[in-house]
């Protein structure tokens, strides 16, 4: 079986940019979020005791079925030696993944949470005539209710944040690397060198001035054109937040990965 690794972490934190860069390497396949994590969850549910026939399903059979899901989803049409699958769910699935793919690595993309909320709010405002799937296509609400919805435990940001903390502090943290958005856009050679070192692959010369990723059809269907847009040149863009000051301050101290004293698992933070 070829190598399978995972891109996870927080939304609006560079996972699409990372995938766009990785796919420049002809040996690699990487894309935006795939349905694989959801499919694995459905299969786990169907093989659980809620199924009256679960008496006939052993844990080894469960492992074989799930391994088969990974192997067959990325079939022969994916001509790559190394696969990167993307989902914010993977940080919450490390115990399962380590039982299936012992050599896996998870690259968790992170960013200061205030700027994540700001980035999502910008997408909503830029598409004011098109309600977004992020909020179940509901046209109401304010920046306050949107921020609250994103940040709660089941929200787009809150769920991913809690999953990341679970992986960061959990017993499988040696499989995790945290890649900061700020590093990726300000020093992309350093960021990519760290990724290659972490996954044990030979370096590759990336073109940081000519990056391409196309998800326009997906974004349009979700009511969020531009959600996965990637600039052609990797560069940091300084800007002023669109958030009210109280919302921005609410999240500005949430970057737990910067607290070296709390990193007792020794997770690599780049």
Automatic annotation (TrEMBL):
Q: Which Pfam families match?
A: Sulfotransfer_3
Designated name of the protein: Sulfotransferase
Gene3D superfamilies, alphabetized: P-loop containing nucleotide triphosphate hydrolases
Matches recorded under InterPro entries? P-loop_NTPase
Domain of life assignment: Bacteria
């Amino acid at each position: 079986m070829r190598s399978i690794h995972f891109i996870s972490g927080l939304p609006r934190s560079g996972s699409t940019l990372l995938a766009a860069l990785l796919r420049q390497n002809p040996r690699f396949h990487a894309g935006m979020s795939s349905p694989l994590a959801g499919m694995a969850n459905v299969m786990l549910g169907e093989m659980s005791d809620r199924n009256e026939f679960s008496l006939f399903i052993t844990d080894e059979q469960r492992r074989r079925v799930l391994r088969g899901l990974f192997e067959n989803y990325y079939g022969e049409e994916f001509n790559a030696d190394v696969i990167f699958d993307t989902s914010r769910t993977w940080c919450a699935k490390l115990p399962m993944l380590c039982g299936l793919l012992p050599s896996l690595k998870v690259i968790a993309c992170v960013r200061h949470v205030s700027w994540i909320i700001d980035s999502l709010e910008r997408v909503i405002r830029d598409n004011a005539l098109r309600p977004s799937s992020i909020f179940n296509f509901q046209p109401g609400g304010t920046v306050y209710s949107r921020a609250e919805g994103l940040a709660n435990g089941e929200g787009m940001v809150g769920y991913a944040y809690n999953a990341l903390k679970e992986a960061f502090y959990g017993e499988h943290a040696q499989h995790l690397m945290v890649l900061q958005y700020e590093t990726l856009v300000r020093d992309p050679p350093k960021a990519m060198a760290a990724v290659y070192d972490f996954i044990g692959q030979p370096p590759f010369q990336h073109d940081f001035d000519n990056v391409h990723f196309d998800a326009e059809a997906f974004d349009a269907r979700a009511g969020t054109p531009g959600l996965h847009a990637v600039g052609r040149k990797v560069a940091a863009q300084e800007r002023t937040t669109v958030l009210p000051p109280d919302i921005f301050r609410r999240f500005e101290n949430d970057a737990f990965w910067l607290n070296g004293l709390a990193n007792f698992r020794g997770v690599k933070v780049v």
